[in-house]
């Protein structure tokens, strides 16, 4: 079920009313309703894969209880291995089986040995990369004795399957979200209004910006051999905007929807395109994933401790893994590796600047150094994202070759220029709002709140009008495929 669909527009208010006015008599009943609603939400896509969520939930629930009671290190490690094996086993089979089979066969073919190992027609379950990581973090934290397990199976199952963030995050930690299922929740009008405001902004990002950009992106990448370099550069720019508005738009809707039900999810994006270097970008982009890999992979393998050679190894390794998390294709591995390479000058020189505040803090405009840093970082992202969007490595190389040819200095040669200009104007409006709201949790959190109510409501009506007037062709959220 898509957030930007009529189905969800009917589903959400119905669940909201039942949640607060029918099933609010006791916490157990309310959590049971959340769990059933979440399973229905997921089953609406394909009911068969609800069983995978249930298996992951059952395994980690009982492993968690046993980890808490068990003192012997050997058995505790075996229990952790069981949890990780089940979760990564499900993820590995559905997402990576064909990739490893194809590359295994190709490797033997290079040495003149033909193997006959069949690939499978596997459907990738939506959100499997998200909920498996969420449940694994629970057992890992228990193994480290950083949290205590819950004996309430319904609460734990609802934590794993919570429908707003089930299929594309944020990837929540048990220490943050699980206690919210165990405590009694009360309706707060201001919190609900704030949630609706964030949902509105998320829908604008997705339906007005991302979906309109997507129409041009699909055409330019599909027919890249027919366009000149400047046109393809525009396509790469549109995709860079599209993927941010698509994914952060989903996160905004998920976080805002959760507030309607009395839950607080972690912030997943923090205005990443206003970053002054690549390190700051990755601290602001898909925060729930990058912090997950930092806490459960990067730090355990040594992190930034040790020699510069070790730091370089760990950095490249973690970015290759992050790239591979996105999909079972070499293009994602290359995408991650190139991002990792961009960190190396800072590691080698030891002068990588760490920015704590948002750009142009307490100022309207950035200075020259900040402007240069943002432009340089954004341009790098526009180019490297070609690997992310292209169908394969060959297409990415061909696409970039056109961009770096002399045709980059030509006038873009495509139809629908009027529509493209409208999309560019919408993008400019979007970034303008994001810039003035960059110190907030989301861009329009405090927009016009201190002004007259008439100004505030006029702004909301403008956003709603643009949602209906400029809505693009409905497209699935990009990160559903991961």
Short description:
The protein is mainly alpha-helical. It has 18 helices and no strands.
Textual characterization of the structure:
This protein is mainly alpha-helical. The chain folds into 2 domains: 6-186, no CATH class; 191-276 and 355-481, no CATH class. Helices cover 66% and strands 0% of the residues. The longest helix has 38 residues, at 73-110. It starts with 5 loop residues before the first helix and ends in a 13-residue tail after the last helix. The relative contact order is 0.10.
How far apart are the termini?
Answer: 16 Å
How big a fraction of the residues is strand?
under 5%
Detail the poorly predicted runs: none
What integer is the average pLDDT?
91
Q: What profile does the largest beta sheet have?
A: none
- The arrangement of helices and strands along the chain is HHHHHHHHHHHHHHHHHH
List the helices and strands and how they pair.
Elements: H1 6-21, H2 27-46, H3 50-69, H4 73-110, H5 128-143, H6 153-161, H7 174-182, H8 189-222, H9 229-260, H10 278-284, H11 287-298, H12 308-326, H13 330-341, H14 344-349, H15 368-389, H16 393-403, H17 417-436, H18 453-469
Helix pairs in contact: 2-6, 3-4, 3-5, 3-6, 4-5, 6-7, 8-9, 8-17, 8-18, 9-15, 9-16, 11-12, 12-13, 13-15, 15-16
Could you list some keywords that capture this structure?
482 residues; mainly alpha; 2 domains; 18 helices; globular
């Amino acid at each position: 079920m898509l957030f930007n669909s009529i189905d969800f527009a009917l589903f959400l208010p119905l669940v909201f009313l039942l949640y607060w006015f029918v099933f609010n008599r006791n916490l157990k009943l309310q959590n049971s309703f959340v769990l059933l609603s979440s399973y229905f939400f997921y089953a609406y896509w394909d009911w068969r894969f609800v069983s995978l969520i249930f298996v992951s939930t059952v395994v980690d629930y009982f492993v968690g209880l046993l980890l808490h009671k068990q003192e012997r290190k050997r058995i505790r490690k075996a229990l952790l291995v069981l949890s990780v094996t089940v979760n990564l086993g499900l993820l590995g089979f559905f997402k990576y089986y064909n990739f490893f089979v194809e590359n295994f066969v190709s490797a033997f073919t290079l040495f003149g040995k033909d193997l006959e190992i069949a690939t499978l027609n596997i459907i990738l379950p939506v959100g499997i990369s998200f909920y498996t990581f969420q449940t694994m973090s629970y057992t890992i934290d228990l193994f480290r004795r950083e949290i205590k397990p819950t004996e309430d199976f319904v609460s734990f199952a609802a934590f794993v399957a919570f429908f707003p963030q089930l299929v594309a995050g944020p990837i929540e930690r048990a220490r943050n979200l699980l206690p919210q299922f165990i405590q009694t929740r009360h309706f707060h009008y201001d919190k609900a209004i704030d949630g609706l405001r964030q949902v509105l902004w998320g829908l604008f990002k997705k339906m007005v910006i991302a979906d309109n950009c997507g129409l041009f992106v699909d055409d330019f990448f599909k027919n890249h051999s027919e366009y000149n370099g400047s046109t393809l550069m525009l396509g790469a720019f549109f995709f860079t905007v599209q993927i941010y508005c698509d994914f952060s738009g989903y996160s905004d809707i998920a976080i805002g929807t959760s507030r309607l039900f009395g839950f607080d999810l972690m912030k997943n994006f923090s205005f990443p395109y206003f970053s002054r270097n690549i390190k700051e970008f990755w601290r602001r982009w898909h925060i729930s994933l990058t912090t997950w890999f930092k806490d459960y992979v990067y730090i355990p393998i040594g992190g930034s401790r040790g020699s510069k050679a070790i730091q370089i190894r760990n950095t490249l390794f973690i970015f290759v893994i992050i790239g591979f998390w996105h999909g079972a294709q070499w293009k994602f591995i290359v995408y991650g590796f190139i991002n990792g390479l961009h960190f190396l000058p800072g590691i080698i020189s030891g002068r990588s600047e760490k920015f704590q505040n948002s750009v142009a803090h307490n100022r309207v405009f950035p200075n020259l150094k900040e402007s240069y840093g943002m432009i340089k970082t954004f341009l790098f992202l526009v180019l490297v994202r070609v690997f992310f969007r292209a169908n394969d490595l060959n297409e990415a190389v061909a696409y970039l070759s056109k961009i770096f040819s002399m045709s980059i200095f030509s006038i873009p040669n495509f139809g629908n220029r009027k529509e493209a200009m409208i999309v560019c104007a919408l993008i400019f409006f979007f970034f303008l709002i994001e810039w003035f709201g960059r110190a907030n949790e989301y861009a329009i959190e405090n927009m016009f709140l201190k002004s007259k109510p008439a100004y505030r409501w006029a702004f909301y009506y403008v956003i709603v009008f643009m949602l209906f007037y400029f809505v693009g062709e409905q497209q699935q959220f990009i990160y559903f495929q991961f």
